[in-house]
Amino acid sequence: xxxxxxxxxxxxxxxxxxxxxxxxxxxxxxxxxxxxxxxxxxxxxxxxxxxxxxxxxxxxxxxxxxxxxxxxxxxxxxxxxxxxxxxxxxxxxxxxxxxxxxxxxxxxxxxxxxxxxxxxxxxxxxxxxxxxxxxxxxxxxxxxxxxxxxxxxxxxxxxxxxxxxxxxxxxxxxxxxxxxxxxxxxxxxxxxxxxxxxxxxxxxxxxxxxxxxxxxxxxxxxxxxxxxxxxxxxxxxxxxxxxxxxxxxxxxxxxxxxxxxxxxxxxxxxxxxxxxxxxxxxxxxxxxxxxxxxxxxxxxxxxxxxxxxxxxxxxxxxxxxxxxxxxxx
Length: 329
Prior knowledge:
Elements: E1 14-15, E2 27-28, E3 39-47, E4 50-51, E5 59-67, E6 75-85, E7 101-106, E8 112-113, E9 119-126, H1 127-134, E10 146-155, E11 160-161, H2 168-173, E12 179-185, E13 195-201, E14 208-210, E15 213-215, E16 225-231, E17 238-242, E18 257-263, E19 266-269, E20 272-273, E21 283-288, E22 291-292, E23 300-312, E24 320-328
Parallel strand pairs: 4-12
Antiparallel strand pairs: 1-2, 3-5, 5-9, 6-7, 6-10, 8-9, 10-11, 10-12, 13-16, 13-24, 14-15, 16-17, 17-18, 18-19, 19-22, 20-21, 21-23, 23-24
């Protein structure tokens, strides 16, 4: 395969023995096994939301560096696009939703060496600037509204990389951050939705075999696992937790770290991603439907997921649904 024309960061399968029943069938992926294009990696999230109580002074702030085969030296441009998603319609309110437009371009003159040794840049998106850019009146922004950010990296040779020609492993395993949302939200206290939670199934699909091992989401019923929800620096509404074994327990696949975003009355989950698959992409479970929660009660909430489907890692498995119930210990 010609690496110049291959899709950025296509997953390679390594046959490594990690205590499996059949050591010849274990696809494990690491950063060293990726075919490099380029992607922006999140170094630090300083402020990850727009505070509805202080919109005029709010700003999204993060530091990224560029991961490629040259420490970011071959990056020609880093482009940030923005659109507004108006989710607070009804009652005859005007819909202020917009299409994605180029908001800001960063060039090598803006880059500097980051803590990982790669060139990177500080990204600051003030609410007042992005609202003016999209034409959204400040007094029309409500809970649940969001600015959708899309970014792309152009190399000096003209190749352009974004979420569309990347893999889920970039964001789930290597802290890549191409596309994301900045929510207008309600800040949480540091003692809310944190600590130990027991996760169980609300419902789950029937067990089936993959790689000659039984598969049923995070494990076969009766299933119960304790996870620790932790604060995410730079955000009052995001919590992260280590999932543990996922998808094919007999092969020690690990779901990595999942981030939850509690946005006033809805909670959104990043994918539970194995980082490995059958040759194309990786096996993952992605959130389906809207998950609601009570801002004043952090004792329990439920999130629905679809396992496999479009994120089956090339294994040819149809989408299968399950839900996780989080109960505070």
